[in-house]
Amino acid sequence: MITHFDRPWSMGTGDLNALRSLVALHPKVRWTHLYNPVAYTQATPLRAEMEKFVLDASRSGHEVGMHVHMYRSLVESAGVTFRMQPSVSCGSDSSGYRVPISSYGRPEIHRVIERGVTILRSRGLPPLKTFCAGFYTTSVALQGVITDLGFTVSAAAYPVAAKFGRNFGGCWPSLSGWDATVTEMTRPYLVSKTSILPAGKPPYLACSRGPLMELVQTCKIDWMVTAAEMKAVFDRHVAVAANGTSTVVCLSFHEESASANFTKFDDVLTHIDAALNGKTSVAYATASQIREAFLPTQFKVARPLTASRCALYPQRLGRVALVDYDLDAGTTHANKAYVLLSSAAGTSPGLRLSNHVLPLNPDPWLTFTLAHPNAFVIGSLGLLDARAGTGQARIALPAALAYSLIGLSLHHAFVVIDPSRPSFDLTSNAVPLVVR
């Protein structure tokens, strides 16, 4: 169940109360709220109430992701030149609402989305994993950017060939990026580096947390579909699952229409609730939980090291370029020492350390990071948490220095050391960082 914070300033108290009522009436639903950072770049009357709502949701087992339209205030706050066209309505749009993100260049897209992430994280939201582009308009460049910025789910695939509901008109078909290969029955799929469509082939877009997965908007969105049509789609998916194939149904509505659509979605969720105890296994899940369930086995590997992003665009950043790293060596290695290192020479064959292989090839950069701990990477040398065996590190580079690194492709990995023996006890996976 996905909510799109499309026009945050138009959300009324009745809409917020309707959302709260749906949550209360259907407690088993796992919600994915796609919050919009534009709430902080222009006047939004219920901003404080909405922020509390999504923060409370994130603390209660639900997910908060990000939804972006290229509104003038958000685009210009990112230092990007605003465009009024092309527009999905074919004319120009002085607000930017109908201008596809994909109509901007990749560096501009990166800067706007990065600005959005920075805004929402500064409000106390946890790491954002799910992203949806305004009007579902998407491109390989856009998907590459959200992957670089640490998102693992795109919820933009639109069922053009659905046998129910309404479709977007105007110039949307030529701007969206989607075609008839996306239907109301399309299952989640990994996103190729060369195509956003379901038939895309490897290699797949991936960052430190693994590949990007596309979640199809199987039931379209509020005004485009009736309750009867959503129930029909759900029942078709249940029939598929009954034959042994796991599948997903996605419902969604705009936050500013929650009150107007309350009866419709209460009806549909009641229908789904009734199926939870049926013969076929049915369960609610967030977008990120769906990704974990559908991720192919070969991608379900331990990742002791993850990063907040896999690319830097330093010439478009502010004063400091930031990349956050999370280390998770497990409780077995709690309170042991670690060193996070970097190499510009690739990952194979790596560096053998006793019975382990650190996936970094020796080069001057590795020597520098080893000789200067906590300089290039703050927290690159330290002790893992005494209970959880976790740690954090951060790259914090002045923009001028980061700019001098453009074109460099780095990898980071860490090694755990038991100082009481001493011995090398664990080497992590390698995480890429491209300076574009």
Provide a count of the helices: 11
> Biggest sheet, strands in spatial order?
6-9-5-4-3-2-1-10
Please report the first level of CATH classification, the CATH class of the largest domain. Alpha Beta
Provide the helix percentage: 25-40%
Corresponding CATH superfamily of the largest domain = Glycoside hydrolase/deacetylase
Would you give the CATH topology of the largest domain?
TIM Barrel
Strand portion, in percent? 15-25%
Mean pLDDT value: 94
- The unreliable regions are none
Number of strands: 22
**CATH architecture classification name of the largest domain:** Alpha-Beta Barrel
The N- to C-terminal Cα distance equals 36 Å
Structural class: alpha/beta
Subunit arrangement of the protein:
single chain
* Coarse morphology: globular
Radius of gyration: 23 Å
The description of the largest β-sheet is: 8 strands, mixed
Tally of discrete structural domains: 2
Description:
The model has no long low-confidence stretch (mean pLDDT 94). α4 (106-122) packs parallel to α5 (140-148) and α7 runs parallel beside α8 (262-275). The chain is 26% helix and 21% strand. The chain has an eight-stranded mixed sheet. Strands 12, 14, 18, 20, 21 and 22 form a six-stranded mixed sheet that branches. It has a four-stranded antiparallel sheet with strand order 11-13-19-17. The chain is an alpha/beta fold and 436 residues long. The protein has eleven helices and 22 strands. The radius of gyration is 23 Å and the shape is globular. It starts with a strand and ends with a strand. It has two domains: 2-299, TIM Barrel (Alpha-Beta Barrel), CATH 3.20.20.370; 305-435, S-adenosyl-L-methionine-dependent methyltransferases (Single Sheet).
